[in-house]
Predict the structure.
Amino acid sequence: MRRSYDTITHMTKSIPPVRKRRIYTPALKFKIVIEAIEKRDMATVSRRYGVGASLLTKWKQTLIDAGHLVFETKSNKGIEQLNKQIARLEQMVGQREVELSLLKNFTDFYASPNTS
């Protein structure tokens, strides 16, 4: 059973077009969220900028959760990174000490004269 051209054309017209994802800059996200907080009306702001209300709520929560990071100094971030690097290097040194100790034990064992 073959489908007619009209049936196939009708079927393809009912498929909605694929929407292209919009990419929002961090500055625009911040502006939109601040406006939503100031106006206390998420629905109006989301319609104004064409952003879904759930996405706007997600951005707002992200700002609330990570907003304190803006006030951290670069030296604090640098200190954290250095502390992580120090811990990693100390772990590597500890591993090398264990390996060296094992090698010394093996060489002493094989270098010692046979008593049998």
Q: What stands out?
A: The chain has two domains: 20-70, 72-110.
